[in-house]
Amino acid sequence: MTAQERRAGGVTRPVPWFAPSVYAAVLVAGLYARAAGLAPHDVPRTAGFVSALALLALLDAAEHRRFPGRTPRGAAVALLSTRLVLFAVVNAVDGSQLSRALFVLVPFAAYFAFGRVVALALSAVCVAGLPVALAATEPGWHRDPEHVSDVLMLAVGLALALAMAAVAAGEQRARARLAASAARVAELSAAAERGRLARDIHDSLGHHLTAAGVQLELASELRDLDPGAADRAMTEAGRAVRLALADVRQSVRALRTEPAVPSLADALGDLGRDAGGRPRVTTHIEGDESRYAPAALTALYRAAQEGLTNARRHAAATTVSVELTLGERAARLVVADDGHGFTPGDGDGDGDGPAQGLGLLGMRERVRLVDGRVDIASRPGAGTTLTVTVPRGDGR
User: What strand order describes the sheet that includes 373-378?
Assistant: First the structure.
């Protein structure tokens, strides 16, 4: 689990506008009570009332600046204790008893700092605290409808505050999980794109550069024996290099724009001609490729390209046959050569050292992405047969 995913399960901040809204409502109610004669109107008490509310607002602002993320447990305890003291001061100097609404902020803030259990416990304390305070100051309060209504409204306010905190916390957790999921998707997409680019580089550049290398070796061998054949081999090597350069340019264009989908039949025909006569390649294609998706056609082409590259590079084959049958439900590609063969599973005959098997690995990955299957039949001295089966799927 990543750090971002671990943070996704936690809660960061309370709803920023809720506490200031309660402060503003209590301030307006308290000033109105003084103006309407519902509460004592003397300058010291009014100044204390306004100052305590201002300190609460400043305390919230300082917490947001000091702790942009989740407030640490120790700091949260100190801040909640300070708020309780200021709530008590406001209630003491208010006189109208309207500032009791401030206590709905106690479980609301506790929900984000300490969790649901602590918030519920503090709510119960607040609900029980008001009757205790009334019993100490006004005996018989429970027979006064106004006092009973005050207790009931405080309980309702606390319940609403808890509900709002639960909804806000759930939304924050959902947003954090969504951000973590989006980051994970981005990582997976980048990894998939790196894999695709690695396969394309190996399949396209590797094929043409292998052809160029074979022709250069041939030219070196025939330089003294048959200068004309050596010149032809050099020409084919230059052609393979130009094709490799063209593939690079096409890949760059494909990264900038949506690439055109070539005909698979034409591409396989060009693949046979690119061999330059060594080995001799024959192709046979049956069926309608228009019913297949571009990804499936690309997988088939790259598989044929990989089979031909391996026959040329490793098997010392003289002939290679490429047969493709595009059926109603699936396409079947068979690439067979008469080379020296190998033992399947021992690097699959592709590459040396650390890079051993990269070509066939990339081909298997590409075919697997279109729900296809790769089978290789070979043994030393008996050639190699590569069979790739790809389902038609939904087509284009």
Answer: 280-287, 319-326, 330-337, 384-391, 373-378
